[in-house]
Amino acid sequence: MTPNNSPVALTVGGVSADQWLTRSIPALTPAVVAELVDRLPVYASLPSEELRRDIAGVVQRSLRAFARFLRDGVLPTDDDVLALRESATRRAEEGIPLEAVIDAYFLGAQYVLDELTRQTDHRGIASLPALCRLLLAYLRPVTGAVLAGYAQHLSASDSAERGAQQTLLAALLDGKPAAEAADRAGATLPAGYLVLSIDIAAHPDETTPGVDPLIAGRRKLRRLSTELQHVSRGAALTRLSTAGGLVLLPIAGEPDSLPESEWLRLAGDVEKLRRHCGAELTVGVVAAEPSGVAAAARLATEVREVATAVGRGPGVHRLTDVLLEYQLSRPGPARDQLAVLLAPLAERPELLGTLRAYFACDLDRRRTGTDLRVHPNTVDYRLRKITALTGLDTTPGPDMLLLRAALTAQQHHA
């Protein structure tokens, strides 16, 4: 029985219940979200951005659908059900327990029912039991959609396709013939891969007091993984945690002769990934044929580590970007001797920091001072002190290359 056919019409504040509910959505939405945060500990640990956007969006959509149901007797549409399923899938990916997700819908419904009851005038009291029946009728398809979305994630996590892709990735990383594994995954081996070793920095939410860092990290990783499939031309193979890992992006061209446009495209794609996941990404990348993926993965990781050690910062780094630093980072007597040159600075971290900043600022004393937040005269004093302790001239000249090499060796030696 729809509200229009009910023997007693439910009125709230002098208008029909569906009209009151529609008008109240802007106020009810944050109130329901606050109720979930107050009553469900796992929701209290969610990032504020997720509560404001994702959770509030689901609450708002549910309120609109229930108002439509009260007005027309029409249950949630296919679009509504799909949105609820997708939301439940995201909660599953973030590791939120299923019982908490179900509780959220019933707590929200209870809050709205309490508000309707408080606002109902004496003429509508008799129709409250009918309203409760309608609310339960509405929650049936909603609960089904939530269960289906949650189950979809669990099924996808254990799917044969994903298992086959992981088998292919393992074969490539182990240096084993991968053609058979590719067949089982229903894939054709590409001409090559861009092998990415990725360090994923913490999202701000992961260090926000009161926010569950595990949920914030999973949310970050889900966003990155989703966008990764958008930018990849073909199925990307991944082995990622919230801190980083490996990604293999298929390429059609020969790895040894990729045009510069491909590298520029990769840099743009990594920037998209950064924006979507909300965390800085430091990437070492090597192009390789399938048979060379194992060695490329090791090299890409080393390139990333060298780039980080010498202060190159987030972004995409190739071996050509850190050739000198990479070579100087290899163990050997020459590296050890270079590191010894800066041994007199071991107990003076401010001098080592100044030297690093000096090179990062292209030997510009003023920029170095700005970077370190000290006066340029302080930079001059520290550089003179470095010269006095090491015997190496810090003014542009013959000793510059030796100083840079010694600094790189010292960082890796340490």
What does this molecule look like?
The longest helix has 30 residues, at 128-157. A hairpin with a 2-residue loop joins strand 1 (11-12) and strand 2. A five-stranded mixed beta sheet has the order 4-5-3-6-7. A two-stranded antiparallel sheet has the order 1-2. The protein folds into three domains: 3-157, Globin-like (Orthogonal Bundle); 191-324, Reverse transcriptase/Diguanylate cyclase domain (Alpha-Beta Plaits), CATH 3.30.70; 330-413, Orthogonal Bundle (Arc Repressor Mutant, subunit A), CATH 1.10.10. It contains 17 helices and seven strands. The protein has helices at residues 17-39, 41-44, 48-72, 78-93, 98-119, 128-157, 160-173, 179-184, 213-231, 260-277, 293-309, 323-329, 333-340, 349-360, 365-372, 376-390, 399-413; strands spanning 11-12, 15-16, 192-200, 237-241, 244-251, 281-288, 315-317. By secondary structure, the protein is an alpha+beta fold.
Report the average pLDDT across residues.
87
Query: What is the 3D form?
Result: elongated
Strands of the biggest beta sheet: in what spatial order?
4-5-3-6-7
- Could you please say which CATH topology of the largest domain applies here? Globin-like
| Number of DSSP helical runs | 17
Terminal Cα span: 76 Å
- Largest beta-sheet characterization: 5 strands, mixed
